TrEMBL record:
Pathway(s) where this gene product acts: Lipid metabolism; fatty acid beta-oxidation
Pfam family, one: ECH_1
The keyword Lyase belongs to this UniProt entry's keyword annotation: no
Protein name, UniProt field: Enoyl-CoA hydratase/isomerase family protein
Entries under Gene3D superfamilies matching the protein: 2-enoyl-CoA Hydratase, Chain A, domain 1, Lyase 2-enoyl-coa Hydratase, Chain A, domain 2
Gene Ontology terms, MF aspect: isomerase activity
GO biological process: fatty acid beta-oxidation
Length: 280
């Protein structure tokens, strides 16, 4: 499915998502509340297309991911796992090849979120379980309501989490607590999530959560998109590089980006004590 890059939302109807664009903020909502927003086959395909559109569309400056209904997401749809099991035969080698390709395809869905050049904010209420942890680990910031419950549930399914939690979450929370959660699969409630750094802020209820997260998103969207993109690029780069590498990269990056009109606009607005307005 092809999406418009003009800043106007496409007519495309998704089976697993609802997508809206308001005030330069794209709201990507998992829209399967009757299934606790479980991640079915369509989910994994559609999220790649959605984030390609987001990345390609300059009118989108910030993204908010949420879940419709009472819960953010219960993770991967068990019916999808059953379907995968039904596609395997008796040959161990071919089964392994099939499963590896399938896992890598699912990983690519959340890598599309992680690699997005726009900031991605997750708004979590209710259950955030299994694959949903993989998803929010790929986001830039995470916020939740007081009823949120987080769990790396794969361990209780007899498997290791395989689409990003074990790779990304250790960079967000401490190693010791990360191992405890991964090995036990226990629930983490909102206050603990805040304490360990899994979420940035806790809101009293879902309405306050959405109001608060969109206020933050709009604040970011009002900044220079050139500056925001450069900041995200540098933060992502530093996950895997030394400080001296990062300093060299930002010097090269800003050799070009400091020539942007946004710098002149920002300085002029600061001097006149007015709010700057930046082009897409």
């Amino acid at each position: 499915m092809n999406l418009s890059t003009s800043g106007v939302l496409p007519v495309t109807e998704y089976s697993a998502f609802k997508v809206e664009l308001t005030d330069s903020v794209a709201h990507v909502q998992i829209n399967r509340p009757e299934k606790v927003n479980a991640m079915n086959a369509a989910f994994w395909e559609e999220i790649v297309d959605i984030f390609q559109w987001i990345d390609d569309t300059d009118a989108v400056r910030v993204v908010v991911i949420s879940g419709a209904g009472k819960h953010f997401s219960a993770g991967i749809d068990l019916m999808m796992l059953a379907s995968l099991a039904g596609q395997m035969g008796k040959d161990v080698g071919r089964n392994a090849r099939f499963l590896r390709k399938t896992i890598q395809r699912l990983q690519a869905s959340f890598t599309a979120v992680d690699a997005c050049r726009k900031p991605v904010l997750a708004a979590v209420q209710g259950y955030c379980i299994g694959g949903a942890i993989d998803l929010i680990s790929a986001c830039d910031m995470r916020y939740c309501s007081r009823d949120a419950q987080f769990s790396i549930k794969e361990i209780d399914m007899g498997m290791a989490a395989d689409v990003g939690t074990l790779q990304r979450l250790p960079r967000i929370i401490g190693d010791g607590i990360m191992r405890e959660l991964a090995f036990t699969g226990r629930n983490v409630e909102a206050d603990e999530a805040l304490r360990i750094g899994l979420v940035n802020r806790v809101y009293d209820d879902q309405a306050a959560l959405m109001d608060g997260v969109f206020a933050i998103a709009r604040e970011i969207a009002a900044k220079s998109p050139i500056a925001v993109a450069g900041t995200k690029e540098m933060l992502s780069y530093m996950r895997d590089h030394r400080i001296d590498d990062g300093l060299d990269y930002i010097a090269t990056w800003n050799a070009a980006m400091l020539q942007s009109e946004d710098l002149r606009v920002a300085v002029a607005a600061h001097m006149s004590k007015q709010k700057p307005t930046f082009a897409d």
